Amino acid sequence: MTKKSCTALADNTKLMKNFDAYLKERAKLVENNLSKFIKKIPNSPKILTDSMDYSLQAGGKRVRPILAMATAEAFGKKAADVMPAACALEMLHTYSLIHDDLPCMDNDDLRRGKPTNHKVFGEDLSLLAGDAMLTYVFEVFAQNGKVKTIGYENTLRALQNFAHRAGASGMVGGQTADVYAEGMGTQEASSVRAEKLKKMSKKLADKSLHYFLLPQSVKETTPENVLLYIHANKTGALIRASVETGAILAGAKGADLKHIQKYADCIGLVFQIVDDILDVTATAKQLGKSNSDAENGKLTFVSLFGLEGSRKHAQLLIAKAQKALDSLKNVKRKNLEPLYCMAEFFKTRTY
User: Fold this and answer.
1) CA separation (Å) from 341 to 17, 56, 243, 318?
2) Beta-strand runs (E) in 36-103
3) Which of 42, 148, 305, 319 is positioned for an S-S bond with 309, CB 3.0–4.6 A?
4) Strand partners, 115
5) What is the mean pLDDT of residues 75-89?
6) Is the pLDDT of residue 272 over 80?
7) Does 240 score more than 90 pLDDT?
8) pLDDT tens digits for 111-155?
């Protein structure tokens, strides 16, 4: 299979229909394994594991564990070889959603078409369920070391990378900026939460907007810099971690690892751009959650660049992602089909 035909895969209607079936089959596989992991938790009040399981089994695309499995397969491993790490990725994503929906964060009532965790179990238990999920994530991920085809060395490398992407330097850092960027998507373009906090706290009264939004490595506090930081981290970091997890566990190194990381960076940003577009164009019923970005004055691609500009940016990123896959050397082209299709799915999804 030539590089040209590989790049064209995502435009093949029949292939994308097959990919839809692939997504459903893989999602079911992940869900079955998630349920098994939750049932293995000993010595816990049943209400806590029920709360965890409620959000884990609430549906969703399961793209993060699927990406990990598909990437591992591209580098010659089997999906089962990376199943513990794949499930850990979904658990971490789910904990972030439980906390994201809380009244102190986005205050959402719906997630995946169902009442959010705190609406069913209360705010206190939802906070604890998220904490328990995050802690359990690392126990589950570490079990990949017991898989003979993976081993402890690659598992440790992947786990360290995963923790980096999930924490202050990645997803949580992006979530922090997202909280304090609330209001910056309006004409006033000011941080509502930062201003409120500065009035309440003498310690923070003289802090600049940069303090709330960006790391020191980013020099200018422009709306575009803030937006790119949020999207690259709040959503993009875990997408990247998913691809990197599959690659590292499979032993990818050197140029191939850099190319697959470039692919992950591009599709991670595409995923969030499309989220921004759907928040404006889709209904709450279609999304399974409220369209709250504009209402909360969130900084989004649409608020900065408009719908058409956002779509064009997503298309350019897809081309870069496909080029990165074309550059991979030590893989079988046939094994890359799911990754090409995933990039196209991220761009064209409607939910």
Assistant:
1) 10, 25, 14, 11
2) none
3) 305
4) 110
5) 98
6) yes
7) yes
8) 988 999 999 999 999 999 999 999 999 999 999 999 999 999 999
- Determine the Cα angle at 322 with ends 320 and 323, to 5°: 65
* Residue type at position 204: L
* DSSP bridge pairs for 110: 115
Question: pLDDT at position 2, please?
Answer: 40
Element (H, E) at 297: none
pTM: 0.92
3-state SS class at 111: strand
Alpha-carbon span 209 to 312, nearest angstrom:
30
Which run of H or E residues covers position 21? Answer: helix 13-39
Count of residues making up the chain: 351
pLDDT digits (tens, 9 = 90+) for 281-308: 877 766 666 656 556 678 899 999 999 9
SS3 helix, strand, coil % of the chain, rounded to 5? 70, 0, 25
List strand residue ranges (DSSP E) for the chain, in order: 110-111, 114-115
- Which single residue is written with the structure tokens 């050397």? 329
* Amino acid residing at 220: E
As a dihedral over the C-alpha atoms of residue 232, residue 93, residue 20, residue 246, rounded to 10 degrees, the angle is: 80
